[in-house]
Amino acid sequence: DGITVTELAEKLKKDTTDLIKKLMFSGVMANKNQALEDEAVELMCEEYGYEAEKEIEVEKTDLLQYIEDDNEAQLKERPPVVTIMGHVDHGKTTLLDSIRKTKVTDVEAGGITQHIGAYQIRNNDKKISFLDTPGHAAFTSMRSRGAQVTDIAILVVAADDGVMPQTVEAINHAKAAEVPIIVAVNKMDKEGANPDRVMQELTEYELVAEDWGGDTIFVPMSAIKGEGIDDLLEMILLVAEVEELKANANRRADGTVIEAELDKGRGPVASLLVQNGSLKVGDPIVVGHTFGRVRAMVNDLGKRINKAGPSTPVEITGLNDVPQAGDRFVVFEDEKKARQIGELRQQKQIEERRGSQSKVSLEDLFEQIKQGDIKDINLIVKADVQGSAEALAASLKKIDVEGVKVNIIHTGVGAIKESDIILASASNAIVIGFNVRPDNNAKKSAEKENVDVRLHRIIYKAIEEIEAAMQGMLDPEY
Ligand code: GDP
Questions:
Q1: What does the alpha-carbon distance between residue 242 and residue 235 come to, in Å, rounded to a whole number?
Q2: What is the bridge-based pairing of β-strands 81-86 and 152-158?
Q3: What separation, in Å, do the N-terminal and C-terminal C-alpha atoms of the chain show?
Q4: Which UniProt keywords are given for this protein, alphabetically ordered (predicted)?
Q5: Ligand 1: does its nearest atom lie under 6 Å from the Cβ of 338?
Q6: Is the pTM of this model over 0.80?
Q7: How far is residue 433 from each of residues 138, 141, 394, 442, measured CA to CA in Å?
Q8: Does the beta carbon of 190 lie inside 6 Å of ligand 1?
Q9: Best-predicted range by mean pLDDT (20-24, 167-171, 283-287, 400-404)
């Protein structure tokens, strides 16, 4: 895809034959239609007294193409990255604190823990990284930006409370992301703790304990007393082994932003999770729509480090602007290239903000189906009562048009919330509200994320609408 000899000659205002001769003297045998390597182009420009500046097209702004492929032999086991999810008050924060307290201090005594959005512990000889923001909102908003950082989800369910609405949401979010779930049955110390009930209730969501013939791991525990934590960590490592999580530490790093902010003294500060390769101080880097050089790097103990391998969370400075959580980062071989790509991405972002990205919507559903762009239609159903949500979901699932499948990725009771919109955005889904409306945040978020929200008061109308859209017979006045 490089520039050809003829094209280069034109740009340099030289004779093609002349250029071919010069190339030959430099050891490059090329005919006039041959594409040249960057090095040869640079050499020729130098010869003729020009400075080579490569043109970058918009396609070059896609960061992921700059990540080199690994060959299998270079891949080594890497630590799992874990997110803790579950209903409010079931003990997510307590569990995160408890794991950190019992495990971090015996790794590096005297370290002052620093909140950088994630931390890493060592259990026997193996490391595990935990994302520090519990809950599925952070998890899913990252995913909606195309980032998948979680390898394993811990679903915390309080044994005295059982499965609650956010438990179900968390399950659906983890399933949509195809992340394995380990159930932590928490608060076992409490009177009225009933782990069997938790297990029973979770069977409805295809989380069946091994004792009951399923393959989901359940760990009874008390986060507050620190009981069961070792078991949980062991199970995490077991699942990690099955998942065969691998990375290559001997290459330029790439990964995802966990959080970022503007610090008065230090400028833009970003917490990054290195997902592959090793990140080093001095590395030229593009982070989302920002760029720079890694000036300083600290780990979760606030310790300055020079190098961070796969699955390690670090905090860096040295960027020209503040990136967003969920943004990808990629290290480049030289600063000039990083700056070029970074600036282009910044431009592109500004343009993108003007026009909006296209998400799936009922209006163009048929078009997309016809073009083979979508084979599944993802729907989120919110209703005023559980009965209607289930009835509507069941009927929607039965719609069969030209072999296109309807997936219900989440059903729930109550107003349409921002978390529904974020899930819809991440999963390219349409939200259907039955006798409920979006709240203000959800409305704003739907607009921003371009999520199609459909409100209905009659079940068969909702079904008809989806069916019509799938057949390309949607009433234009909708
Ligand atoms: P989160 O909302 O899921 O992060 O829940 P928290 O970690 O904030 O815990 C909610 C409440 O439950 C707090 O008062 C905790 O002290 C309490 N809690 C958490 N884990 C346990 C436990 O294992 N046993 C008991 N008895 N209480 C717990």
A1: 11
A2: parallel
A3: 46
A4: Cytoplasm, GTP-binding, Initiation factor, Nucleotide-binding, Protein biosynthesis
A5: no
A6: no
A7: 23, 21, 15, 12
A8: yes
A9: 283-287
